[in-house]
C-alpha cells in the first residue's frame, strides 16, 4: 500500500493540472507546435509523417536522441526558434507543475492539521464532560 501513495499523489496533482487554464493553454500550444513542426519537416526535409512528429516531440521535450537532424538550410533555420520556444515552454510547464504540486501539498498539510485540531478538540471536550 505504501508503494501506491506516491502514485496517488501524482494522480491528484495531474488532475489538478488538467483543471488549470494555463496548463490547458500550454498543452494546446504544444500540440500546435508539434503540428506546425511536423508539417514543416514533412515538406522541407521530406521526412515521413511519423518521423516528423517524432522529431518534433523529441526536440520539444529537449531529449534530442540525434537519430534525426535537419539537413536543409531551411530546416536548420526553422529549428533554431523551434528549439528556443520548446525549451521556454518546458520551463513554463515545470513552473506550473511545481506550483500545482506545492499547492496540493500545502492543502494536504492544512487538511491534516485541521483533522488533528478537531481530534484534540474532541478529546478536550470529552475530558471536560468527564466521559
Give a short summary of the structure:
The chain is an all-alpha fold and 131 residues long. It is 83% helix and 0% strand.
Features:
Helix Hairpins, rod-shaped, 4 helices, 131 residues, mainly alpha, 83% helix
Structural topology:
Elements: H1 4-19, H2 21-44, H3 49-60, H4 73-129
Helix pairs in contact: 1-4, 2-3, 2-4
Task: Report on this structure.
- This protein has about 130 residues and is mainly α.
- It has four helices and no strands.
- It has helices at about 5-20, 20-45, 50-60, 75-130.
- Helix 1 (about 5-20) packs across helix 4 (about 75-130) and helix 2 packs across helix 3.
- The chain starts with a helix and ends with a helix.
Computed structural class: mainly alpha
Number of domains: 1
Mean pLDDT: 86
Q: And the CATH topology?
A: Helix Hairpins
Shape, principal axes of CA atoms: rod-shaped
Strand content: under 5%
Q: C-alpha Rg, in Å?
A: 24 Å
Share in helix: over 70%
CATH class: Mainly Alpha
So how many helices? 4
- Unreliable runs: none
What distance lies between the first and last C-alpha atoms, to the nearest angstrom?
36 Å
Summarize the biggest pleated sheet. none
Question: In the CATH classification, which architecture applies?
Answer: Orthogonal Bundle
Number of strands: 0
The topology string of helices and strands comes to HHHH
